[in-house]
Amino acid sequence: MMRVKRYDDLLEELIREILLRLPARTLVSLRSVCTSWRNLISAPDFTWNHLRRSCLRDPSLTPLQIAYYCRFPSVGMRVLSVQSMMENPSEPTRLDCFRGPSYYSMVGSFHGLLCMFDDDGSFKISHAMLWNPCTGFTFKSPEISGVADVRGFGYDHLSDTYKLYGIFKKEGPSGMESSTRIYTFGPTSSWRRIDDIPLVVLGVPTDDLCTFGNTTGVFFGSKKACTINWSIQHVVLYFDLGKETYGHFTLPVRESGYCTHLSVLRDCLSLCYEDTTTRRWIMWQMKEYGDPQSWTTLAMIPFHPRLRFMRHPLRPLRPLYISETDVLLALSSNFQMILYNLNDGSVDFPVIDSSNDNHHSLTNSYHYTPSFHIYHESLVSPHGLQSNSSQVLLRIMKPKPKPIIS
Question: Which ranges carry the F-box domain (predicted)?
Fold first, then answer.
């Protein structure tokens, strides 16, 4: 006999369906309505359903943001809305600021979680922190000796875990010592020693970080592979997060140029480099991850006088995102956000409202801002983890102007 659902069950399902259609930031506020709503919104299955729905059906539920950590004029995280910059570039996009108690460097982001490294100021001890800016969730890893010169963060879908990779250097009895470690974010996890990168096989000096096109690895995730990727001379070196093994494949053949930059665009591993002969930035996409034959030219972007920083000519153009209408959002070598239309070649420069940051522009941050990361606002926190750190980054709000009394 078919069971007839009670009115209360139907009402609960209706409420759940309505809440699943709301943006993540709104749901965070609604957790305080009542205990039942808080329990529902905080439940892991609701969190994941909301994330999947937003990614597949309605991206507006988890708006895209750009996050970067800056040490000047004040220490903290800065966040910019991708939608605001792309839809209304002439209207100022507000720069949100979060003040932090320590010095951090960003390693990566996934599922709305930002992973950062901190140090004690002496470069002898490090720890990592996982932070969800939308919910305020923070988790701090155990300390580890040394500083990670090469690192990467990603998600292993086979084990449903977030992993942090680092090559740590520290002062030893006979000089600098190096060891490769991995940390799986979990309630009882610790740093584990793993095999070092087989740079000798690639013909690369093991003590020369300049061989890395990017010392912070780029995470690529799909059903077939979850890897952290670095460009090293003529190849992409990757670390498989599931198998915890290394591999490599070749980069596209380049006639000239240097200063490569890896990223993930439209779910494909992508490469951008400066061609000094033709005076253009060349963008490539790998249509089938791991297959060098699938490298395809995506765009050729002519040099623009506002896109190069002559004091640091080795900094590449950094592609961040491509819209459905083929507009590329990128960061220039002089730390200026740009919009480049891949169809007609038009260029635009979004206006940034930095009043929350003492009117400090991005172009003045090149010494203090090593990496920028795209992330989705979400409700996600790793399964089994509870916030264990009091080092919460506080949002700096712009004071409202006082009313004018006539």
Answer: 4-51
What pTM, to 2 d.p., does this model score?
A: 0.86
- Tell me the three state secondary structure of residue 283: strand
Mean predicted confidence (pLDDT) in 343-365: 72
Q: How far apart are CA 405 and CA 378, in angstroms?
A: 42
Taking CA atoms, 295 is separated from 102, 287, 291, 292, 321, in Å, by: 41, 6, 8, 6, 18
User: Which class for 275: exposed (0-12), middle (13-18), buried (19 or more C-beta within 10 A)?
Assistant: middle
Pairwise CA distance, residues 370 & 242, whole Å: 28
Distance CA 167, CA 154 (A): 15
Diameter over CA atoms, the chain:
78
Tell me how crowded residue 265 is: count the other CB atoms within 10 A of its CB: 18
DSSP code at position 364: G
Radius of gyration, CA atoms only, the chain: 22
> In this predicted model, what pLDDT tens digit does every residue of 249-294 receive, in sequence order?
999 877 655 678 899 999 999 999 888 777 788 999 999 999 999 9
pLDDT tens column, 161-181: 999 999 888 887 887 788 899
328-353: b (≥16 Cβ within 10 Å) or e: bbbbbbbbbbbbbebeeeeeebbebe
